[in-house]
Structures are given as structure tokens and as C-alpha cells.
Amino acid sequence: YLGSRTSDRVKKRCIELIYSWSEGLPQKTKIKEAYDMLKRQGIVQSDPVIEKVLRLSSINIYFFFYMLKIV
Q1: C-alpha separations of 44 from 56, 59, 71 in Å
Q2: What are phi and psi of 59, to 5 degrees?
Q3: Is the dihedral of CA 46, 47, 52, 58 positive or negative?
Q4: Which of 30, 43, 54, 68 has minimal CB crowding within 10 Å?
């Protein structure tokens, strides 16, 4: 959604967040399914290397969905 108008920095951050959530919240299968779908579609070429711990907070989740215009 609006991928052509979204900066690479924001895209990279979104991929990092989805990846960290899929690894950190294995009980939330929909997150893992969404990440796997992005990989199948070629949007994600390889798993990101997370240099710092991305905290699973409601602020991060809200920001992510706000950026996607879902909230």
C-alpha cells in the first residue's frame, strides 16, 4: 500500500518490526503468516539482522499500523 511513495527507511523499519514480532511472539500466528507472505511475494529478500532489541510495545505496534494507514 503506497509502497512507491514510502521511503526505504520506513519500509526497512516495518520489515524489521514484523520480523521481530514474528520471532518474539510465536503464539501470534497471523504475524508470522504476514511476514512469510511478504517473503513469498519477494518484498522481503532475506531476514533482517536486528542489531538492537526492538521492544514489543503498544507504541511500536500503533506506529506500524498508523504508517500503513490501518488505524
Answers
A1: 21, 24, 23
A2: -65, -45
A3: positive
A4: 30
Report how far residue 68's alpha carbon sits from residue 63's, in angstroms, rounded to the nearest whole number.
9
pLDDT per residue as tens digits for the range 37-61: 999 999 899 999 876 545 555 556 6
| Residue position matching grid coordinates 498508523 | 66
Q: Which residues contact 71 (CB under 8 A, 6 or more apart)?
A: 62, 65
User: What cell numbers appear for 17 in the block?
Assistant: 518490526
CB 32 within 8 A of CB 38: no
Cβ atoms of residues 56 and 20 within 8 Å: yes
